[in-house]
Amino acid sequence: MQYFYIRPDVAGGLGRNTVLDPSVHPPIVTKLHYVVEGWTGDVLVTTFPCYLVTEETQRALQQIGFSGATFAEAEVTTSEEFHEYQPGQELPSFVWLKVNGKAGRDDFGIAANYRLVISKRVLNLLESLGIPFAVVEPYDGQQQ
After folding, report:
1. What is the mean pLDDT of residues 26-53?
2. Any residues with CB less than 8 A from the CB of 65 and at least 6 apart, and which?
3. What local confidence, expressed as pLDDT, does residue 23 receive?
4. Which residues of 103-137 are buried (b: 16+ CB within 10 A; e: fewer)?
């Protein structure tokens, strides 16, 4: 199976209702509040150290079966900038993609350099749903 680094679009950042432990790296987030500042249509978005997918993507992943992640509820809000620069833009519903797999073995994993690694089949699914602003590079199992 082939694996790839993926750098999803950063559509926003952590909101004030996020609960995290900053004493470790990466910080451990126990409650996610994601504030969208600008959304360009990607079905997978990020802000370190968290990932979110649309509910449509969650359903598609569940249909194909996958390893290395679970889903959890996230509070998703929009910023003033979002409303100013994207007036009338409707956001899909997002869920938290909690990655816990091993890079290069599971469909989702975090490499030693804290980058997200996904399998070829998950990449194919995400590309079919829309990740136009994600950066994808081959993963060879080495830290970069």
Report:
1. 97
2. none
3. 95
4. bbebbbbbbeeebbbbbeebbebbeebbbebbeee
Of 131, 7, 124, 129, nearest to 66 (Cα)?
124
3-state secondary structure 52-97: EEEHHHHHHHHHHCCCCEEEECCEEEECHHHHHHCCCCCCCCEEEE
Q: pLDDT value at position 143?
A: 53
Torsion of CA 82, 85, 87, 89, to 10 degrees: -60
Structure tokens at 67: 């390893």
Burial environment of residue 19 by CB neighbours within 10 A (0 to 12, 13 to 18, 19 or more): exposed
Domain boundaries, the chain: 3-138
Between CA 110 and CA 63 the distance in angstroms is: 23
- Cα radius of gyration rounded to whole Å, the chain: 15
The per-residue pLDDT for 140 is: 86
